[in-house]
């Protein structure tokens, strides 16, 4: 993956003006069948109570995954307990994808897509 992702290693929290937050955590791991890219990640939109609204992660397999499928999956709004495949391309795309999904969800719910500051560690 190279030095281009070192800025993303760790955890960053982007707080929204509505009380929600986007939490992005990325760390290196040994490549496996489930995590072939050598990264363990999660990019989650939480509500004001810390409950997940939507997210992208590779903590475990998605629903109906085959044994040789990577763990990359997403959690969709309103689909609690269900996991859907996500195509992980690279860490920069992960960040772009989570913010695209957050923006779309804000639009769909009439919630301002506005942030406080630049993100906290």
- With strands numbered from the N-terminus, the spatial order across the biggest sheet is 6-5-4-3-2-1-7
Q: Report the span from N to C terminus.
A: 22 Å
Helix content: 10-25%
Number of continuous helical runs: 1
Order of helices and strands: EEEEEEHE
Poorly predicted runs are none
Q: What do you see in this structure?
A:
- There is one protein chain.
- This protein has one helix at 91-109; strands spanning 10-16, 21-28, 39-46, 52-57, 73-75, 84-85, 115-120.
- By secondary structure, the chain is α+β, with helices and mostly antiparallel strands.
- It has a seven-stranded antiparallel beta sheet, with helices on one face.
- A hairpin with a 4-residue loop joins strand 1 (10-16) and strand 2.
- The longest helix is centred in the C-terminal third of the chain and has 19 residues, at 91-109.
What's a quick, concise take on this entry?
This protein has 121 residues and is of the alpha+beta class.
Q: Tags for this entry?
A:
121 residues, alpha+beta, 1 helix
């Amino acid at each position: 993956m190279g030095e281009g992702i070192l800025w993303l290693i760790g955890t960053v929290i982007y707080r929204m003006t509505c009380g929600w937050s986007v939490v992005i955590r990325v760390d290196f791991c040994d490549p496996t069948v489930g995590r072939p890219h050598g990264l363990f990640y999660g990019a989650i939109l939480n509500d004001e109570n810390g409950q997940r609204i939507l997210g992208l992660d590779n903590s475990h397999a998605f629903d109906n995954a085959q044994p040789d499928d990577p763990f990359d999956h997403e959690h969709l709004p309103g689909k609690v307990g269900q996991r859907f495949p996500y195509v992980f391309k690279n860490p920069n795309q992960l960040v772009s994808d989570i913010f695209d999904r957050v923006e779309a969800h804000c639009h769909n719910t009439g919630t301002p897509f506005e942030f406080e500051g630049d993100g906290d560690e």
